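tokens incoming
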């Protein structure tokens, strides 16, 4: 990173090596930022220094299979349980005392954050999910689809079809993405708009098409509202180096993830203070136009909700608004 207030670090154990970015005073409480697919630690760069200025030691790791962290060889290495274990090892390395750290997860980082809260509530002061709500054991986001937009006969899983596609055609999707990483990222990492909520998302018909973009990505110029040239080049370079077989494997452990969630010490409840950040124009998660957030609301003891006017890539598209939502919640003593 070329930002003067952000440094790099690494923690290595026998099972995994986590590379991470850090900002803030090492003596301040840890604020752990967990990215999702297909990103890396640098995805949080726009929010790290402002959050550090609020009095936090802000840590953004490359999740396993991404960036400079270990790329493990087996798809089973990318279960949520393994991701949670990585975060516990990182908190230990940072010296985070029990009950002092706050974890923020976006996209696939959100299930890691939620499961950290249900399996290790003693380690946390609070938990934040961005875009992806908590799904307690026995619930599924596919049960909360807007059937006016996604008729069941045409879209049985609604916008969540891509989740099954990753499990059913993993080699085909990895090869498709690896063939044109810049085109893939330029096509999917676009700023949100109200129009995105008016038509079915491309994610809803991946299996029917035989891929996300089987005829090639439709765009090749990045959206500067989400990624500037330097951020785009850095993400492309990382994903071209690590490959998508690893990144996509996070979607290939559904049965194991369900069993792990069912073993949570809280029974799936979120007992620590929680914040959920809705992205108003996120056409996939669609938490403001469906009932997807209802199971989370029922399972949280202390939940705050905020809305950011952005598409799915909240931290890049609207970093100031995300920082404001986080700082407001943190300043109220929620975590």
């Amino acid at each position: 990173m070329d930002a003067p207030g952000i440094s790099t670090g690494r923690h290595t154990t026998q099972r995994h090596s986590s590379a991470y970015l850090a900002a803030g005073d090492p003596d301040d409480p840890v604020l752990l930022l967990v990215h999702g697919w297909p990103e890396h630690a640098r995805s949080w760069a726009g929010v790290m220094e402002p959050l550090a200025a609020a009095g936090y030691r802000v840590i953004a790791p490359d999740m396993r299979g991404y960036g400079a962290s270990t790329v493990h060889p087996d798809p089973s290495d990318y279960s949520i349980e393994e991701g949670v274990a990585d975060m516990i090892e990182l908190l230990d390395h940072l010296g985070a005392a029990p009950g002092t750290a706050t974890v923020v997860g976006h996209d696939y980082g959100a299930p890691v954050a939620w499961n950290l809260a249900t399996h290790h509530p003693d380690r946390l002061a609070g938990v934040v999910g961005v875009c992806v709500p908590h799904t307690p054991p026995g619930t599924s986001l596919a049960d909360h689809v807007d059937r006016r937009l996604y008729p069941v006969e045409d879209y049985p899983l609604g916008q969540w079809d891509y989740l099954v596609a990753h499990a059913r055609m993993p080699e085909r999707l990895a090869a498709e993405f690896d063939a044109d990483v810049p085109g893939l990222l330029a096509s999917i990492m676009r700023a949100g708009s109200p129009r995105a909520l008016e038509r079915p998302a491309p994610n809803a018909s991946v299996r029917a098409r035989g891929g996300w973009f089987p005829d090639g990505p439709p765009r090749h110029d990045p959206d500067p509202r989400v990624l500037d040239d330097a951020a785009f080049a850095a993400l492309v370079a990382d994903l071209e180096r690590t490959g998508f077989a690893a990144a996509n494997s996070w979607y290939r452990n559904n049965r194991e993830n369900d069993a792990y969630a069912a073993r949570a010490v809280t029974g799936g409840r979120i007992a620590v203070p929680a914040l959920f950040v809705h992205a108003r124009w996120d056409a996939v998660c669609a938490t403001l136009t469906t009932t997807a957030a209802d199971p989370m609301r029922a399972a949280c003891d202390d939940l705050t909700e905020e809305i950011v006017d952005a598409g799915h890539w909240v931290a890049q598209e609207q970093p100031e608004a995300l920082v404001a939502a986080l700082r407001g919640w943190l300043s109220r003593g929620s975590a």
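note: The first helix runs from residue 45 to 53.
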